[in-house]
Amino acid sequence: MGQLQTEVDPAEVGFDAERLQRIDRHFEHYVADGRLPGWLVLVARHGKIAHLSTCGMRDAQAGLPVETDTLFRIYSMTKPITSVAAMMLYERGLFELTDPVSRFIPEFTEQRVYINGAPQQPRTRPATEPLRIWHLLTHTAGLTYGFHRTHPVDQMYRDQDFEWGHPAGLDLSGACAAWAELPLLFDPGTAWNYSVATDVLGRVIEVASGLDLDEFFRTNILEPLDMRDTAFSVEERDRDRLAALYTADRAGRAVRNDKFGRAAHHPPRVLSGGGGLVSSARDYHRFTQMLLRGGQLDGERLLSNRTVDYMTRNHLPGGTDLETLAMGSFSEAANAGKGFGLGFSVDEDPAAAKVLSSKGEFGWGGAASTAFWVAPREELTVLFLTQLLPSSTHPIRSQLHQLVYQALVD
């Protein structure tokens, strides 16, 4: 895989070419009416890119278009990469999924759970279960994000400057120590809440491997997969390729947000395994192809195919779905019929979700409205990249599903 380009006639891999054009025509309206600044979509089947298109601007103010080598902040699409990194260490026998997190981060030794009360004076009790590594991988840890704004503990995170960033002066170790001092929303393993769990997992990776997270990524994932554009910041020579970041106004139109956007210009103090990476379509496509091919790509094996299969099955307690177990919603995506594996959502029942998809499909998205999925039964991978915060502004992901799957006709 060299330069990113279409690699196969759509008909050869089961697509109707005219139906694929419906994807472009639909999302072109998002750019025309100002809902998105620009976007890139990539659809591949049987390992070959069947549809690749771009629309709009990576920087509307500068008049620079989205191009196939544009760099995007992938935010929570960092989480699957961190989860793969963790499972690489698991395969080396460096931990068990049931190990307490306190084995690697002692501050998590005695967790307490919120009962009631104001954020300034909460009532808590001891957790009935230690926080374990599998809880981090599945977001059943009881941790949270400050930006949720649905629970008193969310406010406690915000009060310590954990919302869309981190307090000045903290590194990843310090951030984990601060989170460990805050109460959990629930006993680990009893509910699901999207959270800083994958950031904590990143610290586990550092302690277990003896490497900083960026160095572990570079030597164990990015270089082996030739993901040359993926990093925690963008070097000055590549900043013209980086898309500007936008935030939706009250009418849902994209407004430039340089305050958040400039964070990618400099290496962060906190290496966020939960949301810190910048990447390109080419790089993330290579990552999805590694997953589709059972943990290996171009002769480089990161994981056993058994491990990938294990990661992409539903690990929620009792085999339930996110609709049942999740505390509230966090994006525009439907929770019904979706389980959660070790780092990925897993589509268990497409009929329940009321979104056209394939059973066993797994994937995730990012805060700036990015998304990807891998559908093993169809040998299909899909990638959508744009830069609009938050991802819940428009139903991009459900619409992308229906438009991609309606084009499959074999």
Automatic annotation (TrEMBL):
It comes from the Bacteria. InterPro entries: Beta-lactam-related, Beta-lactam/transpept-like, Diverse_Enzym_Activities. It holds the Pfam family Beta-lactamase. Residues 23-400 form the Beta-lactamase-related domain. This is CubicO group peptidase (Beta-lactamase class C family).
